[in-house]
């Protein structure tokens, strides 16, 4: 399915309605308390995005060769693991190479590990998080691999 932006007419038709999936209320154009409407909308967006932020890998500000990982939970080999999140979680990414980043169960402790392109993903039980490519000292690609684990047949 191709995504497309709403036209002005389509967007204006949403004003004053509630999205049936997320529960987000689109504020009315002439609402006197637009600040409260906006805050409610923002709170709902944040609440619905929590799952998408679970174990998300991101670029670390001020550290060109590092990534952080948001807090989250994952089940590996029937063991539920919680990870507190860390910034940076992987430091010293290989320049001009791809780094594979995953979470694994080490003695019932959620442990982040990584390997460079020649090594690839581990053979044991793990949950893929991301592939990060660096070129000329900067992260050029950060590919989210969490859905590889969730949406496979």
What this model shows, in words?
There is one protein chain. By secondary structure, the protein is an alpha+beta fold. The chain folds into 2 domains: 8-53, no CATH class; 57-150, no CATH class. It contains 3 helices and 9 strands, in the order H-H-E-E-E-E-E-E-E-E-E-H. It has helices at residues 8-14, 34-53, 146-150, and strands spanning 57-59, 66-69, 72-76, 79-83, 86-91, 97-105, 110-116, 127-135, 138-144. The strands form 3 sheets. Strands 7-6-8-9 form a 4-stranded antiparallel beta sheet. Strands 1-2-5 form a 3-stranded antiparallel beta sheet, with no helix packed on it. A hairpin with a 2-residue loop joins strand 8 and strand 9 (138-144). It is elongated. The model has no long low-confidence stretch (mean pLDDT 86).
Topology:
Blueprint: H1 8-14, H2 34-53, E1 57-59, E2 66-69, E3 72-76, E4 79-83, E5 86-91, E6 97-105, E7 110-116, E8 127-135, E9 138-144, H3 146-150
Antiparallel strand pairs: 1-2, 2-5, 3-4, 6-7, 6-8, 8-9
Short description:
This protein has helices at 8-14, 34-53, 146-150; strands at 57-59, 66-69, 72-76, 79-83, 86-91, 97-105, 110-116, 127-135, 138-144. It is α+β, with helices and mostly antiparallel strands and 153 residues long.
